[in-house]
């Protein structure tokens, strides 16, 4: 369980870093990047700490929330990349950040599932 907890904490720190990067790229319009990346990053870190301490509900909760966050990231990525394809090139940076968040989430999901089983 300690390794799973470590990955949840690393995942959370990565989300905070990417959310902060998104916010700093455009502070007027990118508050949601800070709220979603930073907020969910803090939740992931807390769940990682609880998992490390052996709290029984922390791992299934993390699995559920990462799956939910992955679906949100897929939806947001599709919307942003459609806008980029339509000519809004300035949104490509946001699309790249969302894709990285989604990639981290999708790679973590099977690992969490196998640890939970």
TrEMBL record:
Keywords: Membrane, Transmembrane, Transmembrane helix. The chain crosses the membrane at residues 6-25, 32-51, 57-81, 93-114. It comes from the Bacteria. The lineage of its organism: Bacteria, Pseudomonadati, Verrucomicrobiota, Methylacidimicrobium. This is Uncharacterized protein.
């Amino acid at each position: 369980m300690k390794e799973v907890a470590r990955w949840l904490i690393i995942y959370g720190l990565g989300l905070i870093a990417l959310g902060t990067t998104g916010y700093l790229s455009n502070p007027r319009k990118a508050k949601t990047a800070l709220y979603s990346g930073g907020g969910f990053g803090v939740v992931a870190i807390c769940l990682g700490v609880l998992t490390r301490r052996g709290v029984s509900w922390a791992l299934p909760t993390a699995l559920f929330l990462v799956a939910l966050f992955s679906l949100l990231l897929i939806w947001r990525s599709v919307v942003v990349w459609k806008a980029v394809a339509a000519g809004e090139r300035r949104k490509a940076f946001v699309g790249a950040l969302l894709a990285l968040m989604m990639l981290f989430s999708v790679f973590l999901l099977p690992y969490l599932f196998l640890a939970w089983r």
